[in-house]
């Protein structure tokens, strides 16, 4: 029986503070603000430490949604999962993707096959010394399973994208660990972002049975052959626990959308992008497949750590003027944009243990014909 | 009768000063330095005004070739056409492409169809006040026809890529024009590069009959609907005339290579890239076509001047941290790299009148099976 | 008789969205929010077109002040003049300077000499075709005189810094002018910022008698010898008129602060910075002058348009990786920071007609001993 | 008795490949190429890993000097110490400083006081696993003493600037160490540059008695209170040993130049710059001191690792668009340029153990009146 209905809509933005598109849909009744579960966005900052477009976008959305939800902006931020990925290099276009979930309407008897489903879960708060280590991995794995349950997904093969928000270390947090006589995985705030992202991704891999559960602390950021094919993680200063968003297909969903994915083995893996499109019945742009429509693509990108792509040297890691994450997003965004026929896709950087080294997961959501 | 043999080889470089790959091929006899006609390279600078990797690469090549040609480095620079395009953003990989031409050997009777041919020509020196205007257009058109003759190409449809080096204005040159009572097209050195590139590209379009010959000065950089589908132009401070390199197919060539092209209508035009590959018998990577092999792809890229790609806003033109040319090369390089299966492709920025606004020509050279 | 009391306080910020410092002072009663007339801030973006830290900072301040003023955030933005200058390169430190004005308390009889005063005025809305031209110059001059009146300043020699917010052109505005059969000064949005800043600065120069009033449209951005020694202008998209803030000394002010200024003739004019400090009784850091304290320094910086500083070539204008405004702020910020003993100074870029080419005004506010 | 004569001349360059200034002086006889001992230069690259202007400048100088010295370019590079520092941010101006040494002429009897002297020495080649550790420290200390002897300097107080070129690790070198069963200080090529610079600077400090000789491996890059007040070190890929250049004053020199120094405790330490100028009889620009003339200033700059300068937050370390070394050079270059009255000064980044954290040494060479 179809119990939930999941909606997803991509909305272009005119700037990081622009909420007009979402407000118009709420005012017209197209979106019920109470149904909003998560918002994934691309904002036009540099995607680095000093990218303030992410917090600005979240602040603008929370302030705009607050009166509609009769909550304070702070309460909105706790209720809805906002994940903003900075960096719209090249053809990438700033936008937000809004996920809603509600009870299924009557009349879903005609819906066939598994449909798009979304589930969420939180871990407990972590101690600073747990970040980037086995505790974060194990707790994340547990939360992924809980989110699968929330999404009505039993089979790991039905999970196609797991987006995680995770904490990072600050000097205060590092000191607090030290006061307890404990050392953190790193003493660099910037470096801790990679540790937290990596451990979170490994947690996804453990939960889905992609790797064995006995991951050691030393494997994080070192054993590059351990990875999840569907994890996408980003760290932020505003929380001390992991927020897990599972996207997949479920028989309990009456959604008119479907999700699929593939894994890019490197940054020029056009075959993987085509396979991901194909998995939801789409082809290379312009998509001719009758009735099916692309909603959005979600992918992770990174510069190959070994300095080359298919035997040819790349220069992303040696560029003192442009960070490698900006290079990687621009290039992978160009490829995916070209195959998708649009630059309004979610390509995010920093892919530790998210796909193989230099590659990353690529998931596609399609709207099915009525 | 096949009178000439044209060779082309792509050589990876370890840095802008690295000439070891070419020297190894000369030492082994694979390349006769006397046959070298032109070298097109991608160097790893920023591709902007202060990109010194281009002149460094040319200086290193001239110094290394000088003893082999029994010429001074300065004489080498005049004898061989060196065109260095700065900027290997994203997956783009630094390399040079060396074009050679020699008399055809005996035994070319079995060669079928038109084959890769190369021709060169020079315009007269321009006055500074002629740059970016009709004089430069007309003289370039004349030189393109001469280069076609040199290449043994009669039909404009057999021309697939025209690479041009053209002058730019300096304050000295602007003053010299002023002393004659004449105004230059612009008083900005940087701006003059676009004028010179644009007028040169229009010259190609006139020569090939792509547009009517009556181009007015006001059309340069303004009438965006006037363009050549095969022109690729770059301006440099070291010369006052245009150097024209025509690449096409000719029945007089005994080359084992073939060239084709298509036109990207925007930066995400995957169909055009696929068509260009297809025009020389290649498919999307990994190319399965029996016996045929990709040698290199030559393309121009630019940020769409209207600020959007297929209706979605891009942010390339508003980025104060990364120039739009770097964004555009990264994105188009990602797309072409993905479809070609290699980042060692020649994607160059600054595409005034070279393809439609936001788009550009894309040419492919393939090696035929023996 | 002393009729007004002007206060000024510099508050460090932890990020563009940080309002905690100001809120603490309001909560403690140190600042009455109703007295706030203007806020000048340095935010840590790139200071370019895509610097969103400025609007984020204004949005955060308006949202935080709204309940204290019983106004909506939009109304706060209209009531208080917010001028945010992006770019804290080098040692520059993000901060805001809050100016307050209230009726003078009793007991100002002992106050000697002219003291810090602030006045404001607005021009009428401009037509797009008036920007960067004589209409904007003349109206600005009129508003400067009105703001001087508001500040209780009669003698132009008592004016030491005039901060102006001015409009810019957008494509909509340019089209609107076209629909009326009129051409705008430029068709580039980015270029219009310089035109508007330049015309506004010339308006200041006219008002203060620094130049003759018969400025022609052609002089804007061309006649570099026409400039104001105290103008600091910045253009923004959110308004169509000029907001003028005059800072000077007045006998009607009972303020415990004093302002002075000098003009930097180039970016390394340490003598001018020392003279500006000296004009309010301060020396090179560490300031030993009894009782007097530095509050803040306000300066404009730009890369010398002729490409050299005192005969030595600079590379700011040719750098494709870092915009010249960022270079100039970093260098002038380093000099002023070194002489002032603090990086929390207001150094802003884009100095058209604001001081001589390559130079700019530098004003200093000091707190006098009790 | 005066046995040597040391000359020093600063020559502006028009680009990294420009050798015309030096060639003109050689052609005119002003410089005897055989006397050239060392060349310190500022080139206009980004100063980072992918700054090719340094090697381009060295290649151009070696090629140009080769015929004059009847050596191959490679031999020139071994004979003369070339130290190129990339990055001319802000007002910094590209130039080279050429140091020459020859036997003193007759008629030096009238020369009073200690005068500018230069000495050089080399360490033995290091094993990769020795870099950044006590072996490099001890060997460098020994070489500093040897270079002092070469310069005719006995008293450490007469040493005012020690410039060192030192090796870095590459993946090949790291593997070679591993093959011997040894671990290197770091496995990052980029990171090894800091280790090598730091250990070399500590070697200077040991040699001059600034710190005790018992430095442990763990102190390198960690014990920030250990530093030399006169060390300036830069690492390069082209050598496996340290080249040490000592600059000081000696009674055996008949030079018409004098050198002095001070230590900047932070990036805005104007007092230290003034003290350094004063130590050779110069004042703040414009220098009025009779007869004495500024030749050049040599300084190291870095962003304060604790994130603030005199209590105010700086944003250099969080900027993903501009590296902190570029910020720091721009700011310190602005301050020194302002006090010196010229941007043609040598300000170099990366100051590990070279001065206190966030600060660095600043040395001044003056020409004495005849």
TrEMBL record, chains A, B, C, D:
<feature type="site" description="Important for substrate specificity">
    <location>
        <position position="325"/>
    </location>
</feature>
<feature type="binding site">
    <location>
        <position position="54"/>
    </location>
    <ligand>
        <name>substrate</name>
    </ligand>
</feature>
<dbReference type="InterPro" id="IPR043006">
    <property type="entry name" value="AtzD/Barbiturase_RUB"/>
</dbReference>
<dbReference type="InterPro" id="IPR043008">
    <property type="entry name" value="AtzD/Barbiturase_RUA"/>
</dbReference>
<feature type="binding site">
    <location>
        <position position="356"/>
    </location>
    <ligand>
        <name>Mg(2+)</name>
    </ligand>
</feature>
<dbReference type="InterPro" id="IPR014086">
    <property type="entry name" value="AtzD/Barbiturase"/>
</dbReference>
<protein>
    <recommendedName>
        <fullName>Cyanuric acid amidohydrolase</fullName>
        <ecNumber>3.5.2.15</ecNumber>
    </recommendedName>
</protein>
<feature type="binding site">
    <location>
        <begin position="348"/>
        <end position="349"/>
    </location>
    <ligand>
        <name>substrate</name>
    </ligand>
</feature>
<dbReference type="GO" id="GO:0046872">
    <property type="term" value="F:metal ion binding"/>
</dbReference>
<feature type="region of interest" description="RU A">
    <location>
        <begin position="1"/>
        <end position="105"/>
    </location>
</feature>
<feature type="binding site">
    <location>
        <position position="197"/>
    </location>
    <ligand>
        <name>substrate</name>
    </ligand>
</feature>
<comment type="subunit">
    <text>Homotetramer.</text>
</comment>
<dbReference type="InterPro" id="IPR043007">
    <property type="entry name" value="AtzD/Barbiturase_RUC"/>
</dbReference>
<comment type="similarity">
    <text>Belongs to the cyclic amide hydrolase (CyAH) family.</text>
</comment>
<keyword id="KW-0479">Metal-binding</keyword>
<comment type="pathway">
    <text>Xenobiotic degradation; atrazine degradation; biuret from cyanurate: step 1/1.</text>
</comment>
<feature type="active site" description="Nucleophile">
    <location>
        <position position="234"/>
    </location>
</feature>
<feature type="binding site">
    <location>
        <position position="351"/>
    </location>
    <ligand>
        <name>Mg(2+)</name>
    </ligand>
</feature>
<feature type="binding site">
    <location>
        <position position="354"/>
    </location>
    <ligand>
        <name>Mg(2+)</name>
    </ligand>
</feature>
<dbReference type="GO" id="GO:0018753">
    <property type="term" value="F:cyanuric acid amidohydrolase activity"/>
</dbReference>
<dbReference type="Pfam" id="PF09663">
    <property type="entry name" value="Amido_AtzD_TrzD"/>
</dbReference>
<keyword id="KW-0460">Magnesium</keyword>
<feature type="binding site">
    <location>
        <position position="302"/>
    </location>
    <ligand>
        <name>Mg(2+)</name>
    </ligand>
</feature>
<feature type="region of interest" description="RU C">
    <location>
        <begin position="257"/>
        <end position="370"/>
    </location>
</feature>
<feature type="binding site">
    <location>
        <position position="355"/>
    </location>
    <ligand>
        <name>Mg(2+)</name>
    </ligand>
</feature>
<feature type="binding site">
    <location>
        <position position="359"/>
    </location>
    <ligand>
        <name>Mg(2+)</name>
    </ligand>
</feature>
<comment type="function">
    <text>Responsible for the hydrolysis of cyanuric acid, an intermediate formed during catabolism of s-triazine based compounds in herbicides such as atrazine and polymers such as melamine. Catalyzes the hydrolytic opening of the s-triazine ring of cyanuric acid (2,4,6-trihydroxy-s-triazine) to yield carbon dioxide and carboxybiuret, which spontaneously decarboxylates to biuret.</text>
</comment>
<feature type="binding site">
    <location>
        <begin position="234"/>
        <end position="235"/>
    </location>
    <ligand>
        <name>substrate</name>
    </ligand>
</feature>
<keyword id="KW-0378">Hydrolase</keyword>
<feature type="binding site">
    <location>
        <begin position="85"/>
        <end position="86"/>
    </location>
    <ligand>
        <name>substrate</name>
    </ligand>
</feature>
<dbReference type="GO" id="GO:0019381">
    <property type="term" value="P:atrazine catabolic process"/>
</dbReference>
<feature type="active site">
    <location>
        <position position="165"/>
    </location>
</feature>
<feature type="binding site">
    <location>
        <position position="329"/>
    </location>
    <ligand>
        <name>substrate</name>
    </ligand>
</feature>
């Amino acid at each position: 029986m179809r119990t939930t209905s999941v909606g997803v809509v991509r909305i272009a933005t005119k700037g990081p503070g622009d909420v007009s598109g979402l407000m118009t849909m709420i005012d017209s009744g197209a979106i019920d603000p109470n149904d909003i579960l998560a918002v994934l966005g691309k904002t036009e900052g540099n995607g680095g430490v000093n990218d303030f477009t992410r917090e600005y976008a979240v602040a603008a959305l929370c302030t705009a949604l607050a009166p509609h939800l009769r909550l304070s902006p702070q309460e909105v931020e706790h209720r809805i999962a906002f994940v903003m990925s900075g960096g719209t290099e090249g053809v990438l276009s700033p936008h937000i993707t809004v996920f809603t979930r509600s009870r299924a309407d009557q009349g879903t008897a005609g819906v066939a096959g598994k449909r798009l489903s979304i589930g969420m879960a939180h871990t407990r708060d972590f101690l600073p010394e747990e970040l980037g280590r086995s505790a974060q991995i194990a707790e994340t794995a547990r939360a992924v399973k809980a989110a699968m349950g929330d999404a009505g997904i039993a089979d790991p093969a039905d999970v196609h994208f797991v987006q995680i928000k995770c904490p990072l270390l600050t000097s205060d947090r590092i000191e607090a660990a030290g006061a307890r006589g404990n050392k953190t995985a790193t003493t660099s705030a910037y470096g801790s972002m990679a540790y937290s992202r990596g451990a979170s991704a490994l947690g996804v891999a453990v939960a889905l049975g992609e790797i064995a559960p006995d991951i050691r602390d030393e494997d994080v950021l070192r054993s590059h052959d351990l990875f999840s094919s569907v994890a996408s993680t980003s760290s932020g200063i505003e929380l001390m626990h992991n927020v897990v968003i599972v996207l997949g297909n479920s028989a309990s969903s009456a959604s008119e959308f479907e999700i699929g994915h593939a894994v890019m083995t490197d940054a020029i893996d056009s075959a993987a992008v085509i396979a991901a499109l194909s998995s939801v019945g789409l082809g290379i742009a312009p998509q001719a497949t009758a009735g099916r429509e692309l909603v959005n693509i979600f992918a992770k990108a990174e510069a190959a750590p070994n300095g080359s792509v298919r035997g040819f040297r790349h220069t992303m890691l040696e560029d003192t003027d442009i960070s490698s994450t900006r290079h990687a997003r621009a290039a992978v965004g160009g490829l995916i944009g070209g195959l998708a026929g649009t630059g309004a896709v979610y390509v995010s950087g920093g892919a530790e243990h998210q796909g193989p080294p230099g590659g990353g997961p690529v998931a596609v959501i399609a709207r099915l014909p009525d």
